[in-house]
Design brief:
Elements: H1 2-23, H2 30-50, H3 56-86, E1 92-94, E2 97-99, E3 116-121, H4 130-134, E4 158-161, E5 165-183, E6 201-208, E7 211-219, E8 228-232, E9 239-246, E10 255-258, E11 260-266
Antiparallel strand pairs: 1-2, 3-5, 4-10, 5-8, 5-9, 5-11, 6-7, 6-9
Helix pairs in contact: 1-2, 1-3, 2-3
Length: 267
């Protein structure tokens, strides 16, 4: 019983510490107020429903279910707040109160959250020497991990020869995916105002054990007014392994550049 109570208090302290850490900068944020209410609800459930009851297994199960219910909300808020602060966006003042609007969704295909590239089938733009091939350094100049980064700067992409490649990504958690997308730089950002190296047709598979489930065939339009394009996915299963098949580009004769992959959903 003491172990269970210790586990309960550890979770409560962690949640309150997270809330206190952020609320120092955004004390009146509506999102953080919701987070505080969620934490209070968790504590109330533990204290009122199971205090004094001598069933450690029941208490542990209740804590696990409650944490799993509230953790995605906490993660979504923390991720969005972090991205907004990094972008230099500040809360606006209205009637003497801080109002913080959060619209961005969590991108689970982000190296900041722990997503990783685990397999690549592609040809490097410049043929590597024997040593680089032996050490798996064929893509040193434009490594695949750049697809998981948020930097949208010219050249900060995964580049491969011609227009076909297969890339397998491991997400940090099992995710019920509802959107998959790509982002490319604009013509103004490109040194020669050419974005024909952007990927066009691509297919995504979810990997579950030895099964490959096609999540959809998509086409990135490279539209200058909509450089981040997301596509709806309807899936009944959660996945943490995704395989992207890039099948064509927008006409570049020598190579393709994938700047950013986006995966939205719920844990």
């Amino acid at each position: 019983m003491q172990t269970c109570l210790g586990y309960m208090l550890t979770i409560a302290l962690l949640c309150f510490f997270t809330y206190a850490l952020i609320s120092g900068n955004l004390q009146n944020s509506k999102k953080l107020e919701r987070l505080r209410q969620d934490v209070e609800e968790m504590a109330h459930m533990v204290l009122s429903k199971y205090a004094g009851k001598g069933d450690p297994a029941l208490l542990m199960d209740m804590i696990d279910r409650t944490v799993k219910k509230h953790l995605p909300k906490i993660w979504d808020d923390l991720y969005a707040i972090k991205k907004s602060l990094k972008a230099g966006e500040c809360p606006s003042l209205a009637s003497g109160r801080q109002v913080f609007k959060i619209d961005e969704r969590v991108n689970y295909a982000s190296d900041e959250l722990g997503a990783k590239i685990i397999a690549v089938q592609a040809q490097p733009v410049c043929p590597p020497n024997f040593l680089k091939s032996l050490l798996g350094m064929e893509f040193t100049a434009n490594p695949p991990v750049r697809m998981l980064e948020s930097k949208m700067e010219p050249g900060n992409c995964f580049a491969f020869k011609n227009d076909t490649a297969v890339v397998t990504i491991k997400l940090p958690h099992l995710v019920l995916i509802d959107q998959i997308g790509l982002q490319h730089i604009s013509k103004k950002q490109s040194p020669n105002e050419d974005t024909s190296n952007a990927p066009k047709d691509f297919t995504v598979f979810g990997i579950m054990g030895d099964r490959d489930v096609q999540l959809g065939k998509f086409q990135y339009g490279c539209i200058q007014s909509n450089l981040l394009q997301t596509f709806t996915v309807r899936s009944a299963e959660k996945y943490d392994l995704l395989r992207f098949h890039f099948n064509s580009n927008h006409g570049h004769p020598r190579y393709t550049c994938v700047y950013r992959i986006v995966v939205h959903g719920k844990m």
